[in-house]
Amino acid sequence: MLHALKIRTVICLAVLALLLAGPTNASNAIVLPAPTIFAPGSISGPANDGTPAFSPDGRTLFLNHYGAAWGVMLESHRTAAGWSTPVVAPFSGPSFDVQPAFSPDGRALVYASKRALPGRLGKPSHYAFNLWRVVRTPSGWSAPARLPDAVNVSRNMHNPSLAANGDIYFTAPATIGPGEHPHWRLFESTYRHGRYDRARPVAFAERELFDAEEPCVAADESYFLFASRGLRAPVGHKHFFIALREGKSWGRPVAIRYTGDGWPSAGDDDAEPQIGPDGETLYFNSPRSLPIAANRSRAQFLADAARLEAWDNGNSHVWTLPLRPLLDALRRGEAG
Length: 336
Description:
Blueprint: H1 10-21, E1 31-32, E2 36-37, E3 48-49, E4 53-54, E5 60-66, E6 71-79, E7 82-83, E8 87-88, E9 96-102, E10 108-116, E11 127-137, E12 140-141, E13 145-146, E14 158-162, E15 168-174, E16 183-189, E17 191-192, E18 195-196, E19 200-201, E20 212-217, E21 223-228, E22 239-246, E23 249-250, E24 254-255, E25 257-258, E26 271-275, E27 281-286, H2 298-307, E28 317-322, H3 324-331
Parallel strand pairs: 1-25
Antiparallel strand pairs: 2-28, 3-5, 4-5, 5-6, 6-7, 6-8, 9-10, 10-11, 11-12, 11-13, 14-15, 15-16, 16-19, 17-18, 20-21, 21-22, 22-23, 22-24, 26-27, 27-28
């Protein structure tokens, strides 16, 4: 996740979150199969890939490619031969555009973009990551429009996710108390009668969650995904969690477990969850790659060298997991 916050406070905040949250793993936790790479060679290529956002019909996706300092939004279409080579989206740039999210009806796309704040054009010190929206029109996508101040409550807004009723969820920094370093927190802004209410922290049934980020809500708001570095060991690694709707808040978060979900190095975090058009497939990005043997042969060494030009090069690429077994178990009360 491309954030301006420094990683230097992650471990202490994660330990605090772990103490506050308590265990989230059930003894009868559902373990999903190992994730698989998504569309290698077309969507998952040699660049750093963000998680794609899919149109409701599953035929179009948007994702961002990014480097150390900036990113661009790309568009791809599914054909009989597979996914087309991504091209720059017509509304992307010249700003730093990341983390697209489709509205469930496919009429709008919201994303984070580093642009000059209104009324402060040309003043670099007033550039900020805010949430912007484009809308489908008969002639294509509209020009980007900044969401209102009721939503854009920070200069560091990320990871929008939209429900079918217009509610929007996102990540923004917050502090636990005076003098504390900021940390990531989940927010939501309800959409009623054509306007957004002032954003507020996402409510969970048992307690507020700190050190939580990257929300992804089901279209009908029946379940909610997010990432955290502190709610599950090993602390400092980013893991995914899921919670079901319980009245006006969310139930106890449950860790999403799958085969091979332990990471050998601190950089192998899974990030930016998205739900596919079927409502039960998880997509995310991760720098995981196939292992390399230290005593490999010359032929294997050459094959490994070739992998650096493909998706399996240690950059961030797109992976996918089926969520249906976990969703079914949660709804039957067999996990959590």
